[in-house]
């Protein structure tokens, strides 16, 4: 039962990511400012901490493939990034599940590093020609602020999902 709700939750978060990306960029003082939510990635990191490695790796692979197929730019970039960052998060930071402030900073920093990883791959292959300073000022910092705001509702959502029983047919004594 928990897996079904997790899948629905991941699919909803993926839809929210795509929906918000359709209204970005915003024009601000003559410059295009990009607010890019990474709700799917942050949820993968939180699932890695609160549900375990098997759930997070499975959903990283499934939604990495879906995201790579949807974007269609470079196949495997999100899949590899999701799996690598989730494994890193699970192995290095599972002590943060009780420290909410520490977990917040770790998830936000990993989200920034994941976005920078995507930018770096795109920059190396020539898919994007945005200079580093413009990337940081017009995309990374606004996206970091947006993701910090969206983290709290996402954490509450993951904690509610954690309370769902694994099997709906278990008997209570």
Automatic annotation (TrEMBL):
<keyword id="KW-1133">Transmembrane helix</keyword>
<keyword id="KW-0133">Cell shape</keyword>
<feature type="transmembrane region" description="Helical">
    <location>
        <begin position="103"/>
        <end position="122"/>
    </location>
</feature>
<dbReference type="Pfam" id="PF04093">
    <property type="entry name" value="MreD"/>
</dbReference>
<feature type="transmembrane region" description="Helical">
    <location>
        <begin position="77"/>
        <end position="96"/>
    </location>
</feature>
<comment type="similarity">
    <text>Belongs to the MreD family.</text>
</comment>
<protein>
    <submittedName>
        <fullName>Rod shape-determining protein MreD</fullName>
    </submittedName>
</protein>
<feature type="transmembrane region" description="Helical">
    <location>
        <begin position="142"/>
        <end position="161"/>
    </location>
</feature>
<keyword id="KW-1003">Cell membrane</keyword>
<dbReference type="GO" id="GO:0005886">
    <property type="term" value="C:plasma membrane"/>
</dbReference>
<keyword id="KW-0812">Transmembrane</keyword>
<dbReference type="GO" id="GO:0008360">
    <property type="term" value="P:regulation of cell shape"/>
</dbReference>
<dbReference type="InterPro" id="IPR007227">
    <property type="entry name" value="Cell_shape_determining_MreD"/>
</dbReference>
<feature type="transmembrane region" description="Helical">
    <location>
        <begin position="31"/>
        <end position="50"/>
    </location>
</feature>
<keyword id="KW-0472">Membrane</keyword>
């Amino acid at each position: 039962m928990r897996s079904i709700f997790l899948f629905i939750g991941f699919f909803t978060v993926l839809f929210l990511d795509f929906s918000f990306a359709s209204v970005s960029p915003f024009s601000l003082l003559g410059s295009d400012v990009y607010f890019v939510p990474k709700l799917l990635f942050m949820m993968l990191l939180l699932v890695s901490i609160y549900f375990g490695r098997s759930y997070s790796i499975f959903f990283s692979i499934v939604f990495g493939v879906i995201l790579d197929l949807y974007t269609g730019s470079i196949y495997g970039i999100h899949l590899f990034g999701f799996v690598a960052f989730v494994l890193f998060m699970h192995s290095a930071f599972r002590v943060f599940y009780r420290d909410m402030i520490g977990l917040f900073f770790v998830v936000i920093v990993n989200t920034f590093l994941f976005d920078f990883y995507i930018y770096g791959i795109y920059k190396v292959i020539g898919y994007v020609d945005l200079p580093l300073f413009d990337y940081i000022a017009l995309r990374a910092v606004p996206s970091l602020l947006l993701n910090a705001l969206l983290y709290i509702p996402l954490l509450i959502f993951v904690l509610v999902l954690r309370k769902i029983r694994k099997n709906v047919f278990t008997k209570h004594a």
